[in-house]
What does this fold into?
Amino acid sequence: MKKIIFILLSLLLLVNITIAQETKPQKGHYNTSKFKQLNEELPTPNSEHTASGAPGYEYTQQQVDYKMDIILDDENQRIYGEETITYHNNSKDNLEYLWIQLDQNMRASDSKTPNIQVDEASALYTPSEFLKNFMEEAFDGGFKIEYVKNSDGSDASYLINQTMMRLNFEEPLVSGGTYSFKIKWWYNINNHVTQGGRSGFEHFPIDGNNSYVIAQFFPRLCVYDNVDGWQNMQFWGRSEFALEFGNYEVNITTPEDHILGATGVLQNEKEVLTKTQQKRLAEATVTFDNPVIIVNQDEAILAEKTNSKKTKTWKFIAKNVRDYAFATSRKFIWDAMAVDINGRTVMAYSYYSKEANPLYGDHSTRAVAQTLITYSKHTIDYPYHKAISVDGQMGMEYPQICFNPGRPNPDGSYSDRTKYRMIGVTIHEVGHNFFPMIINSDERQWTWMDEGLNSFVQMLAELEYEDNYPLDRGLPKNIIGYMSGDQSKIAPIMTQGDHVFDFGANAYAKPAAGLWMLRNTIMGPELFDYAFKTYAKRWAFKHPTPADFFRTMEDASAMDLDWFWRGWFYTTGNNDIGIKEVKKYYVTDKPTEKAKEMMTRYGRSLDQSSPYLYMISEESEEFTADLKTKNTEDFKLLSDYINTNFSSEEKSTFKTPKYFYELVFEKPGDLVMPIIVEFEYEDGTKERKQYPAEIWRKNDNEVTKVFPSSKAITKITIDPDEETADVDLSNNSWPKNKDTKFEEFKQNQIKG
It folds into this structure.
């Protein structure tokens, strides 16, 4: 007996070995699921940046305070400055040196910024283009540092590397220590209209005056944190600024006939404003419906003719801001209006030339007010006392002040295009007070964290500014041209700003479209708004990272969004979901061949089983036309079961489907997205159903759903409102649209 057992075991072992030899194991693979968690991509949480996305109990950040005396030389278009900087080392680290940003150096005559630009010989040039490209000397811009001194007056040790200055310590600045030093400097102001730039002056040949929009005008400390250490990337002109919060005392000397707006609270109103201007300004503080004119157009025109050689000094104090900027001109019209932010009065100001009127007079201050109201609702209450819009003919932002485009025709008329561009940019730039001036992300690295988030909330403010406001950039349907373009010219959103190809699409439009989808399609407004506001509250006046945003949005909503962050932010994939096949089924109580085969596979027969109801396809050879006339209650098996097991009240809640549609959805695109399906019935009515993105979790190519209906369906459409940035609409309908070629042409015309 034992021998027999041994022989059998041996034979069994032999068989197993033989099978193992004949069946080669398949190679394994890494987890390639679109629903894989982001743990590998996100930094490890710690006591400063927690796993929930909130600041940790050991979170710290530096503080930098500035005292500045600034002189604007209008005759020579120069800025002179002296500043005392006090650095507070709140980190747990001892610092061997400080890094300081010298942004103006990108315009120095020896700047390397032009050298990184690729250019080719053009077939033709205007005389001005030829002169600028080949004959003119480089603009003598950049900081002229006269000295850097320690607080005791001794010379400080420093080294300048292009747009960065390293201030060296003899002894490390210990944790909790402070260090004060002084810098004296000046530079030639660029004409931002002819030479470009984020600040500068505009010259008006007709009246011989200049308007100044001045920013990045002083050496500023870089951010030091526990995520990246020192922010030490060079400024090439695009990716903006990572800055620390601090307190500012700033004195700005200008020609006596100038009107000036700046970051901070004006300290000497009686010295720089006339009694009439003071009276009008006081009136504006209690006027919430319409702007009050502080300096009117006639007064501005009169000032244009004065060209005073005398000066006056404007004195400001700004607390807990991350930067400083100002605008000044004798040309400025000035209006103001009070804004109610949850019971607290904030002032909305506009400064503009007569060339920008009446467009600015009609809309600028009102757009400022709407921005403060909408953004306060979706983030935190605006904490400062004012927000300023300046006719600067660019789009650029700073704490409490921004420079915006838009001017009417010479006769004062303006098109809708001009109007909406001016309003949109104004809302956008004022909105930057929140992102990144308060929720202080690192613009140098992650442009989308300020531009993308801001572009999204901008859309909400625009819709509240005017009914049926024509939204453009930020809608999912308007990004598909970019997402379906040449992959060699597309970078993921999670790319440092200097290295993307299409800056507008990458940093502004695509992140905004993603947030629009999250709010309106994936999460719903209630969940999204709470989570988004939680992020703003957590990181107001702090330095958030992308991980803090991603984690907070999930933490405050109980939604796993890793699939969305990975697809939309970390890849260049696109969304394409289509209808592969639609089959119509009917119910029968007669066994079908397909049912018999199914039971056979399980080793059973229909005769040995309980009675069943069967589904039969309209395409089956077994299908008979009489099934179309039958209702579910016509089948005795079902009706008996219902009558036996349910009360009349319960039965009244049951649906009575007559048709059963099997829908096969395909996904040629890379991304996973919810499936939004619209059914149109024979009586003209419509119904929508949305399947979560998780429907793709086990099959990334196609999924099948059965939809019961009491009415015949005549049309099925995927994503009827174009909510999911679907790049190909030709496969979104059943039956297929006859105008797919036209739709394809139309989609190719849409640019991101």
Remarks:
- The chain is about 25% helix and 25% strand.
- The first strand starts at residue 63 and ends at 73.
